[in-house]
Amino acid sequence: MIKKYILAFLSLLFCSSISFSQTPCVNGMAGQFPCNNIDILANIPVATMANSMLNPNGTGPEGSDIWGWTDPTTNKEYALVCTTNSTAFVDISDPINPVYLGKLDTNAGANVWRDVKVYQNHAFIVADNVGAHGMQVFDLTKLRNVSNPPVNFSADAIYNTDNLGNCHNIVINEDKGVAYLVGCEQPNGTRIFNGGPIFVDISDPKNPTKINHYAAEGYSHDAQVVTYDGPDTDYTGKEIYIGSNETKISILDVTDKNDIKKIADITYDQLGYTHQGWFTEDKKFFLLGDELDEKDIGTNTRTLIFDFTDLDNPKLSSTYLGASNAIDHNGYVKGNEFYLASYRAGLRIFDIQNIAASTNSMTEIAFLDTYPDNDGAAFNGVWSVYPYFASGNIVINDIERGLFIVRKSGSLSTENNVIDKNAFSIFPNPSESNPTITASNNKLIQSVDVFNILGKRIYSKQNINSNRFVVPIQENAKGLYILKINNQISKKLILK
């Protein structure tokens, strides 16, 4: 019954730019979406953020890559949302009420893929499967003073050296101020440098300058570049490039852009398409996704974990298979967790504290399935995820449904993981008035704290020592709150 009222309440929050907001994960569902331990804070449809006049082949706009920027002056958080024909900028510093600030249109017509990364308060944007696009540079500090959103922004610079047209992806090593453009073509579709990385100095962001390129290892679909601080002391301080190169992983020392040194290549069984991977933070392991093994070979969602403790001799450490055969796409590591965009299976979050083990190296701890129809091996649903905001908020870009701003339910220690959770009840819930907490089994209510969805305490009462307590919060804004009882048990409450 509570779930029914929650959904009814949430439907009242609909507006033209925000599809829905504050949809908690209740009994395995966040509204229409299967979930575990993830609440939806807000959603903005892709059609709101894209340019409806620039649709490829007459189809509707779609979402693709996503990244984030935190303004170092204001600490506001922004989502940079790639679509078929534009890059949208969304202020998510209030994630329940995100503000779509505007978009930067494509530089060369509509396309399927667009990728963005950030360096020194600038966004660097490339696009694939389109003509003379080049690399767009956009000064993100423009987002500080948008008085009448949404705005149609213009690029601050366009990089098109070597008659650069398309690039599939862009990688930035922020330590060095170098961008790596990969999978690039001229406007006529001719590959540039076999699709290998092009090294661009972006230390002066509005004046990008080519350093060199590298063609010997062929096409790079995606890559990660780090200033190495891992266990292989032979490479300490070196700039290491890990390329996902369609048929192999290529490890390169790219410290000297005029003298690239190959370290190792890696292949593996049941190879479909070596797509994308990410280091663990200690650089001991590399988590790889193969994009076509599920579709073409028939495996369940597969993550390959490689031991990179010796970069000259990398080896497969373990393989994780998911519960369905949904295709995996982009995955990123933050601390001891792995955030995987898994197309029709949505966002999956894994605990990787046991990553060194030969079995059970990853454990799924949370998910939000934004494609509820099925988890089949097809290209719908979540394209990518950005988990690196200091707030703990996570942004997802869904191909059909656009931007999701979400947060792990467990970040506020909700009731799923506490002892004696049924000792206290809240009524009414959802509530239009001050709700009453009632204790059972001779329990006493000693203290009550109320938090909003951002984790801010809005009410606190100590030394209650009663089996009933009315919480005086009805004058607060409508939405989702967490009531913490006796500093131990947490309950979700909806004010409507």
UniProtKB/TrEMBL annotation:
Keywords from the UniProt entry: Signal
SUPFAM superfamilies on file: 3-carboxy-cis,cis-mucoante lactonizing enzyme (SSF75011)
Domain Secretion system C-terminal sorting: 426-494
Any Pfam family hit: Por_Secre_tail
A single GO cellular-component term on record: extracellular region
Domain of life from the UniProt record: Bacteria
Keyword Cell membrane part of the UniProt annotation: no
Statement: the UniProt record of this protein carries the keyword Signal: yes
Leader sequence residues: 1-21
Descriptive protein name: Regulator
Organismal lineage: Bacteria, Pseudomonadati, Bacteroidota, Flavobacteriia, Flavobacteriales
